[in-house]
Amino acid sequence: MLKVDFIVEKLGLNNKQIEQTLQLFEEGATVPFIARYRKEMTQGLDEVQITGIRDESTKYDEITARQSTILKRIKELGKLNEELKLKVESTFDLGSLEDIYLPFKQKRVTLAEKARKNGLEPLAKIIMSQNANNPEGIAQKYVKGEIDSIDAALTGAKQIIAEWINENIGLRNTLRKMYASKGVLVSKVVKTKMEEAAKYKDYFTFEESLKRCASHRFMAITRGQNEGFLRVKLQIDKEDVQHLLRRFFVKGNNASSDLVLEAAEDAYSRLLAPSIENEFLARKKEEADEGAIKVFTKNLRQLLLAPPLGEKRILAIDPGFRTGCKVVCLDENGKLLTNTTIYPHPPQKDQAKAKSKIAQLVQAYKIEAIAIGDGTAGRETEHLVKRIHFDRDVQVFSVNEDGASIYSASPIARKEFPEYDVTVRGAVSIGRRLMDPLSELVKIDPKSLGVGQYQHDVNQNKLKLALDDVVVSCVNSVGIDLNTASPYLLQHVSGLGLGLAENIVAYRNQEGRFENRKDLLKVKRLGAKAYEQAAGFLRIREGENPLDNTALHPEQYALVEEIAKRKKMKVADVLGDKEMLSKLNHEDFNYVGAYTFNDVIQELQKPGRDPRNKVKVLEFDQSINSIADLSVGRKLRGIVTNVTNFGAFVNIGIKENGLIHKSQLADTFVEDPSDYIRLNEHVNVEVVSLDVERKRIGLKRL
């Protein structure tokens, strides 16, 4: 099967779309570039479809590489024929490939192999034929050397038969169907660890059909098993298995048939069941991983595309009790102006001095907004700040500080602020993520941002690839200011990487601001290919060419210039002239494709539009300070902090987040909570359950 046919079968796209996309990948194009600027070639495929082609192409390469390895090893054994070669080359399921290869695998010294070396294979064949009514009498002839009894001879023969049965592809495929339809996942607590395993109490004696087991439950069970608290098995009905073994291998009703059945049961319990059980658990784990990664990527996209406050002068506070609250002031570009520490909370409780200091800083540095981390002492600090009378209107925001401590101790933070300690860096991160979440959060490992579900348990390579895709997609969908962006943001732009990003910043520092996208070609080691990939995603405000501050690619400028020429307008006047642009017809500019024409007109109507929303302030209920202040039926305002497969976690202004289970999200059945609720969404909720001891708060969306 050719790669294109393989991908067509998996994704249902047409051959031309796949061929052209694969060609673009071979030429070094990135997913965002293909999706935005090569729609004519792909017939309008979006990022998800293009990423699917890339991933299925990788799977195809992995399968064909395994086929090659298997063929090479069978050939080395001198057992490769045309029929077997064709069978391997036409199999594109990795499990089935391994079944074909199983009889040829180099085995460790198995019980069957020992029996063969002792000359028992002829006896095994006689028993397997089931024509012998007296296998004990025949076995007598094989009692010699290491085989010191009839029982030993028969045992060895059964071990050889068990291996044959284990390698029977038909049986394996039938068992797979049984496991797929009737497999039951069973977990039991390790009795000596019951107290330590308390958080897995729901799974101490648990049974559920594997195919119906939700991915988050499976991940919880798997984590409990990996931590040594649970024992997990996948089981099917024993009577069904015995009936199947009889149907496949028992041909008669004599002593040999009984031995074959014994061998088959041994093969199942010792070889087949562990193998297929592991295969299905691994497959379920892969499925659960995909579900968890999907949840994580959706949340990460929403987090990265959270509304930015914009270029404002910010006072940011990283709250704390005993160690005080670290305060920093930032200018419009996020540059650190000053820092200090205040001690308004116990044990010092110096509130008057703290309020006075904050008021002075707001006045001295013309502060426009205050960002307060939502961690320890966050609520208390917010309450304090809102009681200060400032000399101007100042908005106060509670900012999710997940990952700020990770950033503050990172090499990036040390490089940015070598003369400051981690507390100052953490406060700067809180302030900057209010200003522009995307620019700041790309500096932090996404797994540290608090929006995942079992992110440390899933396949880390797949998770990294998926998260990298999201970061790149978000960065390129927003567009990056070429003259202000950090190298950590620039590195995610299509066609760049950290090396070129650092070269861009070095050029900017040495030569001054970029006035034209073409100036990128003067950057060290940034060639024509990187320019082609990156240019459309980089913005130049107030540069020489107004089109450089749009999502238009330089290769599309000629079309805009032609529009301006025909309408006797300046290019700058074309931007935003919705009435004129809406009257243009593609037929009059048919030297460009329809996709390109429509995209250009859409961008010209809203040039340089930021896809992110405007930031909002959320006011928590000031009378709620801890879980003890809650009661069932209490109605509150909150902000969504994480969305999972089973519901959404909501910050209601106290240390513990509440959970809106998906059954409480809507008046209809909810399969995927992310279809009903988004990260950072402001919601009205009602408390429906409280478990103060376990610090669990159940919420219902109103």
Description:
- The chain has 702 residues and is an alpha/beta fold.
- It has a 5-stranded mixed sheet with strand order 6-5-4-7-8, sandwiched between helices. A 5-stranded mixed beta barrel has the order 11-12-13-15-14.
- Helix 11 packs parallel to helix 15 (255-304).
- The longest helix is centred in the middle third of the chain and has 50 residues, at 255-304.
- The model has no long low-confidence stretch (mean pLDDT 93).
- Total beta strand runs: 15
Low-confidence stretches: none
Structural class: alpha/beta
Provide the spatial order of strands within the biggest beta sheet: 6-5-4-7-8
In helices, the fraction of residues equals 40-55%
Average pLDDT rating: 93
Count of runs of 4 or more consecutive helical residues: 29
**Biggest sheet, in brief?**
5 strands, mixed
Strand content: 5-15%
- Regarding quaternary structure, what we see is single chain
Q: What is the C-alpha radius of gyration, as a whole number of Å?
A: 33 Å
User: Quick one: overall form?
Assistant: globular
Between the first and last Cα atoms, what is the distance in angstroms?
53 Å
Write the layout of secondary structure elements.
Blueprint: H1 3-11, H2 15-26, H3 31-37, H4 39-42, H5 47-76, H6 82-89, H7 94-101, H8 111-117, H9 121-129, H10 135-139, H11 150-166, H12 169-182, E1 184-189, E2 205-209, H13 215-226, E3 230-235, H14 238-249, H15 255-304, E4 314-318, E5 325-330, E6 336-342, H16 351-364, E7 369-373, H17 378-385, E8 395-399, H18 404-408, H19 411-416, H20 422-435, H21 437-441, H22 460-478, E9 480-481, H23 487-490, H24 498-511, H25 528-534, E10 538-539, H26 557-566, H27 571-574, H28 578-582, H29 594-605, E11 635-643, E12 647-651, E13 658-661, E14 682-691, E15 696-701
Parallel strand pairs: 4-7, 7-8, 9-10, 13-15
Antiparallel strand pairs: 1-2, 1-3, 4-5, 5-6, 11-12, 11-14, 12-13, 14-15
Helix pairs in contact: 1-5, 2-5, 8-11, 9-11, 11-15, 12-15, 13-15, 14-15, 15-22
